[in-house]
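[step 3/7] inverse_fold.run input=structure_tokens len=112
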């Protein structure tokens, strides 16, 4: 099954972070995303490019609606011509499979 067809599961503070082995497998499924560490927290980041601010804002709004549907919310920085999206699970302070699912679903917003 494709990541984008999976559903997020409720993530509690005691949920396990992805292991190094899982990270290596899952990141291959979302090749445009980069694992980064911010303040000691592993996150997934991707910069989406657009022709202008209006298109970047429209994408941001679509992503916001998706995040609300899934009840999993990213960091979003909207600028002229680009949107930087960062996924991580706040409750566990790192990456959960949900973050990879949402990264894949975010990618599909562009391909629609």
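[step 3/7] decode complete -> sequence:
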């Amino acid at each position: 099954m494709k990541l984008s067809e999976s559903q997020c599961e409720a993530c509690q503070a005691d949920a396990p972070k992805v292991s190094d082995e899982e990270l290596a497998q899952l990141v291959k499924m979302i090749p445009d995303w980069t694992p980064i560490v911010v303040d000691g927290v592993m996150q997934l980041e991707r910069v989406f490019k657009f022709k202008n601010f209006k298109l970047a804002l429209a994408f941001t709004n679509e992503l916001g609606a998706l995040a609300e549907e899934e009840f999993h919310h990213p960091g979003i920085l909207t600028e002229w011509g680009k949107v930087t999206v960062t996924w991580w699970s706040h409750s566990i302070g790192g990456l959960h499979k949900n973050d990879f699912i949402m990264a894949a679903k975010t990618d599909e917003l562009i391909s629609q």
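[step 4/7] annotate
The mean pLDDT is 92.
The domain at 36-112 is CATH 3.30.1360.20 (Gyrase A; domain 2).
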